[in-house]
Amino acid sequence: ASATAMKVKVRRASGGHGGGNMIHGERQAASVTSSTAGRLPARRQGGGVRTNVAMPTRPPTTHVASRSKVELIKEKSDYLRHPLLEDLVDGKPNVSNDSVQLIKFHGSYMQDDREARGFGRGKAYQFMLRTRQPGGFVTNKLYLTMDDLATDFGSGTLRLTTRQTYQLHGVLKDDLKSVFSTIIKSMGSTLGACGDVNRNVLAPPHPYKNRVDYQHAQVLANNIADLLAPQSGAYYDVWLDGEKFMTAEKEDPKVTEDRNFNGFGTNFEGSPEPIYGAQFLPRKFKVAITVPGDNSIDVLTNDVAIVVMTGDDGEVCGYNILAGGGMGRTHNNQSTFPTLTEPLGYVEKDDIYHVLKAIVATQRDYGRRDDRRQSRLKYLVHSWGVDKFRHVVEQYFGKKMMPFKPLPKWEHKNYFGWGEQGDGKLFYGVFVMNGRLKGEGKKMLRHVIEKYELSVMLTAEQNLILCEIDPAWKEEIQQQLESVGYVDYSKADLLDVKSMACPALPLCGLAVTEAERGLPAVNKRVRALLTKVGLSQQESFVIRMTGCPNGCARPYMAELGFVGDGPNSYQIWLGGSPSHSRLAEPFMDKMKLDKLEETLEPLLYFFKSRRSSEDESFGDFCARIGFDALRVYQKAYVAPPSISQLPRVGVEMDAFEQLKAVAEAQNKTLSQVATEAINAYAAFALTDGKEGKK
Questions:
Q1: By CB neighbour count within 10 A (0-12 exposed, 13-18 middle, 19+ buried), where does 546 fall?
Q2: For residues 126 and 113, is the Cβ–Cβ distance under 8 A?
Q3: What span, in angstroms and rounded, lies between the C-alpha atoms of 149 and 164?
C-alpha cells in the first residue's frame, strides 16, 4: 500500500464466521470517522516512535512520557544498524554500551568470562550466539554446521536451551561475522533470538508424522516466527554486507499478506518495520504453541500461548488463545513476579496471524517503556485485568474473539527413549544433562547424525530427539551413544532427567551464583536425602536451578526450585506441579548450600510420612499441606537417628490415639505434640493450677 496515498489493504475474513456484524462477521478496513473515532486505534505512519507507558487514565497532556535508555538507543539506531556497524570494525575486543543492546536483536550477547580475567588485563570479552529454531527443528546440515562452529570458533561445547535453540559460547568479536554468515548460509538464523522482539517460538518437539495437530503446530511455529521477524534488512546489512541470502524456503504467502494488512492500526505505514516501528517492543515477547493436553514446553509461562484445536474430522479449525505469562522477577521488588497465562478467547484458523498482531500491537502501544522491569506483557495484563486487555486487543483485531473452548488437563510429555514416528521410522529422545553437548558425547552425536543423515528436534527441557531412524539402525545407534555416556533415560537418575539449570557462572552477567555447574551435585545430595528418609530410587520430582531471579530455566514452575540470591545462596520455591500447570511459591530466602540437608530433610520426611498416596508428588504435597504446616514441621523435626537416643516414655493407648489425632490435625510430629502437652501439664502442676485460675 502507498504510504503517501494512505491506501489500506482490505482483507476478508473466512466465511465461517457467518453474518455481517463485527462480532462474527467480516473484518473490514475502516476509515476513522466520527462514528469510529475513539473506538479503533489510529493507523500508524512513518518510523513509529512510541512513548506510551500505560493506558491513559486522564486527558492527554503535553508532557512526554519518560523512556528508558534502551528506548533511546533503539530509536537512534536506524533500525538496529548504528553504532553496531562501526563498532564491529574498530579493532577492540568489545562493542560499545549502545551496541551491547543492539546486538541482542541480531541474536548475540556480549559476555565477560569472569574466571578468565587476567591481572591488569581487564575483562575477558567474548560473545554468545543464540539461534532461531521454531519448534526446535534442526536440519541435518544446520546441526553439523553448529557442531563445526562450536569447535572452530566457540568454546568447544554447544548449549541446548530451554526455548528449543542452540547457544554457542566463546566467540570472539573478530569471528562474529564469519559465524553469523555461516549460520545464515546453512539455512539457519539468529535474527530475533534475543532483544525486544518476538523470541523463538516454542512447539512440542513432536516426531510424529501421523498427527495433523502436531504437524500443524510445527508449521505454525515457523510461520509465526516469520510473521514477527524484524523486516528492515539491518540483519543482512550487518552480517552479509547487505546481501539477503536466498534459501530454498519461502515465506508462506498468507504470512506476507496478513503482515501487510493494516485495517485496524496494527501497522506503521511506510516503515521498514511495519509491526515493530523504530522502537520495536517494550521488552521481549514469547509465543508457544501446543495441542490440547501436551505441556512439554511449559506453555503457560509465555506471553502468548496458542492451543491448536481440531474438529470432529481431525482437521484444524481454530485456536484457543491465552496471554500474560512470564517468569522473570527481581529480588526484593514485590512489583515483579512470575505468573501464568490467562484465557483470552478463541479464533478461527484464518484469523491467527491477525489476532497475534493485535496482541503485539497492544503491547507495543501500551506496554511500559520507562521501566524495563515492568515492561513485559504480563504487567500490562495484570494492570488492566484480562477483560480490559481483551477489549483493546479486539480493537486492533477488528472484531470480538469467540469464547474460549474447554481443554483437557495438562500433562507433561518428555519424548524420551525410542518411539515410532508413524511413517515406519523411529525417533530416539536423548537425555542431555543441563543441555550441554561436550567432549566425547558431542563427537559421538555428530558421528551418528552425520552417518545416518538424521534431522533433530530440540526440546524445551534442554534435550534432543534424533529423527528419521531406520529400525535396522536402532541397536547400533543406542550402543554408540551409550558408549559415551548417553544412556537411555530409564537408566539415568530421574531427578537428573526432570531437572534443568541455566548456564549462570562464569559467563552470564546477571548470575550471582552457580546453576548449571552446581545442579548435578545438588541432585546427588537430594537423592541421598530421599534414600535416608526411606523413599525409593524411583522417587523423583521436578528440580530447577537458576543463578539469578530472571527465571531462564523456569524455576518458578518446579516442585523444588533453587533461585540464586547470593554466592552459594538460593531462594527456595516449592509447590509446582508435575504437569507444569501450577506456579511454585517462595518458601525460604537465602538458603546457603551447606544448609541444604537440614533445610530439606524435614520436608522430605514429612512428605514420605504424610503423602496422601504413592501417586502424590512432592510438589502436590507441598501445595496441599501448605507452607505454614511445612515450616512448623521443619522447626520441630528430629532426625530419625537422634530419636533413638532420646528417653522413652510409655503412654496408654487412648492417650496415644489422642496425641496422634492432634498431630494429624495440626500437621505436627507426635514428639512435638507430646512435648507440648507434657510441658503444658508440668507448668500447670508446678504452680498448683494457679496460672490457669487467673
A1: buried
A2: yes
A3: 18
Report residue 252 as a C-alpha cell: 508462506
Which pLDDT score, from 0 to 100, does residue 641 have? 63
| Selection from 185, 175, 182, 180 nearest residue 107 by Cα | 180
Return the percent helix, strand and coil in the chain, to nearest 5: 35, 15, 50
pTM of the predicted model over 0.85: yes
- Report DSSP state, residue 187: T
Q: Are 132 and 190 in contact (CB under 8 A)?
A: yes
pLDDT tens string 285-309: 999 999 999 999 999 999 999 999 9
Residue 268, class by beta-carbon neighbours within 10 Å (0-12 exposed, 13-18 middle, 19+ buried)? buried
Q: CA-to-CA distance for 279 and 276, rounded, in angstroms?
A: 7
SS3 per-residue string spanning 206-232: CCCCCCHHHHHHHHHHHHHHHHCCCCC
Q: Give the mean model confidence (pLDDT) for residues 674-689.
A: 73
CA 145, 147, 151, 154 dihedral sign is positive
The span from the CA of 516 to the CA of 633, in Å, is 31
Give the phi and the psi of residue 569 in degrees, each rounded to 5. -135, 140
- Residue 679 confidence (pLDDT): 76
CB count within 10 Å of CB 211 equals 17
Taking only the tens place, the pLDDT of each residue in 591-632 is: 999 999 999 999 999 999 999 999 999 999 999 999 999 999
Contact 545, 561 (CB under 8 A): yes
